[in-house]
Amino acid sequence: MTSQRTRARLIQRLEESGIRMPELLDVIRRLPRHLFVDEALASRAYEDSALPIGHGQTISQPYTVARMTQALMEPSKPDTVLEIGTGSGFQTAVLASLVRRVYSVERIGALLERARERLRQLEYRNIRFRHDDGALGWPEYSPFDGILVTAAPRGVPRALAEQLALGGVMILPIWEGDAQVLLRVTRTPQGFEQEVLESVSFVPLVSGVS
Ligand code: SAH
Q1: Range list of β-strands (E), the chain
Q2: What's the 116 CA to ligand 1 centre distance in angstroms?
Q3: Which of 77, 106, 160, 195 could form a disulfide with 112 if both were Cys (CB 3.0 to 4.6 A apart)?
Q4: Cβ < 6 Å from ligand 1: which residues?
Q5: How do residues 145-169 score in pLDDT, each as one tens digit?
Q6: Is position 10 within any domain?
Q7: Distance from the CA of 205 to the center of ligand 1, in angstroms?
Q8: Ligand 1: distance of its center to the CA of 84 in Å?
Q9: Which residue, judged by its Cα, is nearest atom 6 of ligand 1?
Q10: Strand pairing category for 144-149 and 57-59
């Protein structure tokens, strides 16, 4: 169930869906996604689907993780990335394998602690975690070359836009009525450019901590 063949099939699927960055595909091929879900769901860990991780949250679908990471890195590879919504830590691990430093903020303390322990065991040393409302960003370490948000707000959170470096890119899902779209926001000398990438479905961004 966690065999090389099952993983190879997932990678092939991602390639067929338009994921073209060889380095990114390689990172996902090597990551043990079964360690990011409950044991009872481990047999489904290499399917291209979102799975429950408790507290009403989900680990994102591998395609979505890959698509967002590619969209973040396509213009140029960021050096520092702020991630909002650590969840299982899977997206965090993908980012930390590709960039120099990742800052990850999660509002649910229990999920954050589990993700922190998982990533420690996998020997990632370039991630800083914070238990807080991610809509506030992480001003102490700003500006960030990249920001990736994995829960959907109603509009682009102002604090996050302000913590983006000049030339930096933010990838985030945002509500449009009852549906969501994935946005790429780029900070330019003139202000912010927005580009709609595709339809997506994320859990909502919730304020406060728990
Ligand atoms: N990338 C994660 C996705 C988890 S789902 C993964 O693949 O595992 C989205 C996560 O965003 C949830 O863990 C949820 O608790 C968190 N979240 C929602 N609102 C938040 C907020 N305001 N600040 C920080 N995290 C938030």
Answers
A1: 51-54, 57-59, 80-84, 101-106, 127-131, 144-149, 164-176, 179-188, 191-200
A2: 14
A3: 106
A4: 57-60, 84-85, 87-88, 90-91, 105-108, 111, 133-135, 150-151, 203, 205-207
A5: 999 999 999 999 999 999 999 999 9
A6: no
A7: 7
A8: 6
A9: 59
A10: unpaired
Residue 4 lies in a domain: no
pTM beyond 0.90: yes
Cα 17 to chain centroid, rounded: 18
Backbone angles phi, psi at 199, to 5 degrees: -80, 145
Catalytic (active-site) positions: 60
Domain count, the chain: 1
Nearest CA to ligand 1 atom 13: 87
Decide if 25 is inside a domain: no
150 Cα–ligand 1 center, Å: 6
Specify the CATH number for the domain of residue 105. Answer: 3.40.50.150
Residue range(s) defining the domain that contains residue 121: 53-200
* Cα 5 to Cα 28, 46, 73, 84, distances in angstroms: 14, 10, 28, 32
Asked if residue 48 has pLDDT above 70, the reply is: yes
Residue 210 contacts residue 186 (beta carbons within 8 Å)? no
> Rounded to 5 degrees, what angle do the CA atoms 12, 15, 20 make?
145
Task: Kindly state whether residue 139 falls inside one of the protein's structural domains.
Answer: yes
